[in-house]
Each structure stands twice: as structure tokens, then as C-alpha cells.
Amino acid sequence: MSKFGEFCHTVHTHSPDIVIATESKLTEVKMTTQETAITGYTAPIRRDRTGNGGGVIMWVRQGMFFRQLDAISCDGHEVLWVLVDTKDHGKTAVCAVYRPGSCSGTDTGVIDYLDSKLEEVRHVADNVILAGDFNVHHCTWLGSTKTTLAGEALEDMCA
Question: What is the pTM of this model?
Fold first, then answer.
């Protein structure tokens, strides 16, 4: 089974409402949007990197009411925003984020971007979920032994 086949199997086993993948390393040449389709989910929303590696991709379960928040610019960062309308929890903005591991611990660009967009997003959403690979460290997370400036910035933003 291919890696994507294994990925689809995992998705179908757990049946999440929203699926986010980072470091998708895709381009339309490597794998078309049609080839990244998952049964039971909408066509994937992608932000492919033009160079090697990186990228984010998101699938939303069919039948869920959502729209991509295109008005929120990505400012060159590897992020995707969607607004999901749920019966039980109102409108939830979901942001898929990839901050490359090659960024230095002092590079807070993606975190600063997210922080600057939160107020804008909160005007249209009752809840906000940030998910992805931030590649930052903070001593209070997952047993990390160090805290980077970027980790501190993310911790402060989420507090």
C-alpha cells in the first residue's frame, strides 16, 4: 500500500471531521488535486510550496458547511484558513500551519502572522483552532528541555 493509501486508511479508521497534513511536499505535477481526493471528504484545499518540501493540505468531511477564508491573506506563509459552521459549536475557524524546521528558534514570523490575524478571524468565528507543525519548543510542552523565542511567542499568543 502506498503512503497515501495508508494515510487514507487511517482517515477512514478514525473518521475525523477535518484532516490536516503538513509537509505534504506536493505540487500539481507530483500529485494532482484529484489524486489527493479522499472518499467521504471534499476536494482537498492545498497550499503547495513551489520549492522542495513543505506545504499544507486540508480535507473537510462531506456534508459539513464550510468555506475557505480567502480574504485572510497568507502573507507568504504556509497556512490555510477555513470557516466551519457547526450546529453545536457555532462557527469555527480552522487554520492549518506549517512552519519549516529550518526556521531558527528566533524566527517568529509565522507566529507573528497568526497573532496579527486572530483579531480579524474572531470577527467571523466563535472559535479558532490552529493546527499543524509549528517546529517550536517550549519547556512546558511534550517534555521539551528548552524554550525557543518562537516557542515563547506561540505560548504567549495562546495564553
Answer: 0.90
